[in-house]
Write a structure and sequence with these properties.
The complex is a heterodimer of chains A (111) and B (114).
Chain A lengths: L3 E3 L3 E5 L4 E7 L6 E7 L6 E7 L4 E3 L3 E6 L4 E6 L8 E9 L3 E4 L3 E6 L1
Parallel strand pairs in A: 2-11
Antiparallel strand pairs in A: 1-3, 3-8, 4-5, 4-9, 6-7, 7-8, 9-10, 9-11
Chain B lengths: L4 E3 L2 E4 L5 E6 L6 E8 L3 E9 L2 E5 L6 E5 L5 E5 L8 E8 L9 E2 L3 E5 L1
Parallel strand pairs in B: 2-11
Antiparallel strand pairs in B: 1-3, 3-8, 4-5, 4-9, 5-6, 7-8, 9-10, 9-11
The chains are: A mainly beta (111), B mainly beta (114).
């Protein structure tokens, strides 16, 4: 069925280090992927997206990598800061405009 | 520009009751989607409305329904509430339905069914 999953429910990273959050998706027909960040008490916030015809996209301190061969998506956060503490969701946009979310990874920043 | 506004923020209802949640999208946005978020199931798609028409629906029972008005504001209704309906209900708006259009989320309505 349609599903987007995450390898690790919780990731602890030292402040200043790089964070890598991974995601596996199952629908090979998906043509658009998004990463969202959700802080406590708030709705998800768009971080970065990537279309299926790309394998890498960079933003400010964030990079998304897409490997269609193994249906894998990752979010890299450079120089992780305390403000990066949140739950991160990968999401998959299926052609009929339905966005399917993964269950989320909690990023915990160690001082 | 005001963001997506959801009301109420918090709601407590009794089993068997019904509830209506409201979402006001960003001005000019015509697509509104609803999601249910629970610790066990994560974010699950409920339905999407565009120009007052339901364009897409998730795998939820018929107790969950919604509508969109001509000003793009949307409501969702849950009838005969069950304990398992306790969740954060999130609304997201987009200007249109084109692929790659960013969705903006509201803060959600926290529904507790007792």
């Amino acid at each position: 069925g349609e599903s987007v999953g995450l390898h690790l429910p919780t990731l602890s990273v030292q402040e200043g280090d790089n964070s890598i959050i991974n995601c596996a998706y199952s629908n090979s027909a998906s043509d658009y992927f998004i990463w969202y960040k959700q802080e406590s008490g708030k709705g998800p916030q768009f971080i970065i997206d990537i279309r299926s015809n790309m394998d890498k996209r960079q933003g400010q301190r964030v990079t998304v990598l897409l490997n269609k061969t193994v249906k894998h998506l990752s979010l890299q956060i450079a120089a992780t800061q305390p403000g990066d503490s949140a739950v991160y969701f990968c999401a998959e946009n299926i052609g009929d405009d339905k966005i399917i979310f993964g269950k989320g990874t909690r990023l915990h920043i160690l001082p | 520009k005001a963001g997506v506004t959801q009301t109420p923020r918090y709601l407590i209802k009794t089993r068997g009751q019904q509830v209506t949640l409201s979402c006001s999208p960003i001005s000019g946005h015509r697509s509104v989607s609803w999601y249910q978020q629970t610790p066990g199931q994560g974010l699950q798609f409920l339905f999407e409305y565009f120009s007052e028409t339901q364009r897409n629906k998730g795998n939820f029972p018929g107790r969950f329904s919604g509508r969109q008005f001509s000003n793009s504001r949307s409501e969702m209704n849950v009838s005969t509430l069950e304990l398992g309906d306790s969740a954060l209900y999130l609304c997201a708006s987009r200007p249109d339905r084109a692929l790659g259009t960013e969705a903006f989320f509201g803060q959600g309505t926290r529904l507790t069914v007792v």
